[in-house]
Amino acid sequence: MLKFCLSLLFVVGTMQFIGAQVPQVIGNVFNRTSTSLDGYWQYIVDPYENGFYNYRYEPFEKQKYPSKGAFFTNSKRQSKADLIEYDFDKMDSLLVPGDWNTQKENLFYYEGTVWYKKSFDYQKEQDDNTVFLYFGASNYDTDVYLNGYKLGKHIGGFTPFQFEITKHLKATNNHLIVKVDNKRLKEGVPTLNTDWWNYGGLTRSVKLIETAPTYIQDFTINALTEKNVIGGQIKLSGQNKSDATIELRIPELGISQNYMSDVDGVCAFKLTAQNITYWSPSNPKLYDVEIRIVGDAVRDKVGFRTIETKGKDILINGSPVFLKGISIHEESPIRGGRAHSKEDAEMLLSWAKDLGCNFVRLAHYPHNEHMVRLADEMGLMVWEEIPVYWTIDWSNPSTYDNAQNQLSEVIKRDKNRASVVIWSMANETPTSEARNIFLNKLARFTKSMDSTRLISAALEQHNYNGNPNVRTIGDPFAETVDIMSFNQYIGWYDGGVEKCERISWYITEDKPVIISEFGAGAKFGRHGEKDDRWTEEYQAHLYEETVKMIDKVDQLRGVSPWILVDFKSPRRVLPEIQDNYNRKGLISEKGERKLAFYALKNYYNTK
Ligand code: GCB
Question: I need a labelling partner for 355 at 20 to 30 A (CA). Which of 16, 54, 142, 568 fits?
Answer without folding.
Answer: 568
